[in-house]
Amino acid sequence: MDAVFEHDELSKEYLEAPWGEWGRSLTLGLVSVVGKFVLHVMNRSEFDRVDVLKDAVMERERDLGLITVSNHTSTLDDPMLFSAMFPLSFFFSEHYHRRVRWSICAREVCYSNTLFGQFFKSGKTLPIERGAGLHQPVMQVVAKSVSRGDWVHVFPEGKVHYNERLGPLKWGVGKLFCDSFLLSGRMPMVVPFYHVGMSKVLPKGSVVPRVGRHVKVRVGDPIDLSDVVDLCKSSTREGQECAWKEITHRIGSSLQDLENSY
Question: Which of 132, 151, 225, 261 has the most CB atoms in a 10 Å sphere around its CB?
Fold first, then answer.
């Protein structure tokens, strides 16, 4: 396990709201207004079993971490899908409940300049370095956040698949699960969902969302990983990597089942 987890100053650097907690709520709220307009007014959206996700977000124990996973088919998947699934009040009241998800975005996309960086940081989106591997500091911060009870959404494919077919998953999601468990001693909840249609709303190379498309989202049951969680305790790197691989495989199987259900 990485030894850098105790760096609270690093967590503060990544997680602090650059425009204050009210500014964070305003940022999240205004983005959700846009997301709802795009998916509910410009386009048509339907959601299956979204209550499973809402219960996981709002009703779980406060110190129980949550990892949501989904396929990735456009650069608007997050925040648009969450904006459409949750009420506006959820985002505008973030300063009160602090339950809105943390997300991860490539640094060269979301942190390309100071203003962009402050905007995405205010919107609870953290920068990741493409090609920097599993052990970069931001992933340690994310694991620590989950261990404290936060919600983090990840796209385990690691890139956008515009053909809307599930691609191979990266081991990072398995490592995130294990690291969070080792820090807190509790398994984080893992909830999958699968969506179709977002690649039609914002096709590759487009910057303006399309009109008249149909988006569907289906939420799966929380993934039971209780029979493999002890693999995370391996004292060797080889054993740890086997744990990450097995957990990632389980998550991939759940996403595959959701894809096959369409």
Answer: 151
69 phi and psi angles, rounded to 5 deg: -135, 145
| Among 189, 198, 192, 167, residue whose Cα is nearest residue 257 | 192
Residue 125: strand pairing partners: 103
Low-confidence stretches of the chain (pLDDT beneath 70)? 1-10
Terminal-to-terminal C-alpha distance of the chain: 38
CA distances to 35, 62, 90 from 38, rounded to whole Å, are 5, 32, 18
Name the token pair of 31.
């983005």
pTM of the predicted structure, to 2 decimals: 0.95
Q: For position 8, what pLDDT does the model report?
A: 67
> Which string of b and e fits 168-196 if b means at least 16 CB within 10 Å?
ebbbbbbbbbbbbbbbbebbbbbbbbbbb
The encoded tokens of residue 259 equal: 């894809």
Residue 119: phi and psi, rounded to 5, are -65, -50
Closest of 35, 26, 87 to residue 58, by C-alpha: 87
What is the rounded distance in angstroms from the CA atom of residue 104 to the CA atom of residue 24? 16
Q: How far is CA 50 from CA 92, 123, 150, 231, in A?
A: 20, 22, 19, 31
> Pseudo-torsion of CA 105, 108, 111, 114, nearest 10°?
180
pLDDT tens sequence across 2-12: 444 445 666 77
Distance CA 46, CA 39 (A): 9
What is the SS3 assignment for 71? coil
Angle (nearest 5°) at CA 10 between 108 and 106: 15
What stretches of the chain adopt beta strand conformation (E)? 44-48, 66-70, 103-106, 125-128, 151-154, 189-196, 214-219
